[in-house]
What we know:
Blueprint (H helix, E strand, L loop, with lengths): L2 E7 L6 E3 L7 E7 L2 E5 L8 E5 L4 E3 L22 E7 L1
Amino acid sequence: MAVYRKIYYGSPGGTFITDAELAFVKIIEVARNELTYYPVEGTPGSLQFKYDSSAGRIYFDPLNPFVGPEPPGRPNRFNLERIHVKYKA
């Protein structure tokens, strides 16, 4: 099995990422904005994620959605949240 790393950008207001390449793989590490998150089986909370292997989806805390662009006054800068995923496939 090879090890891969991908970067995703969270959609503002969203709480999960989906990618067909993440289906049925072994997740090694997930980081959101450079903070390491840990796997859970139930609903994720702070610094936790839930992996749905069949859907290729990683869920985050539903009470902590992804943020969008920076506030008004800086219209040309977009700072979407980055999610780093390391996995074996």
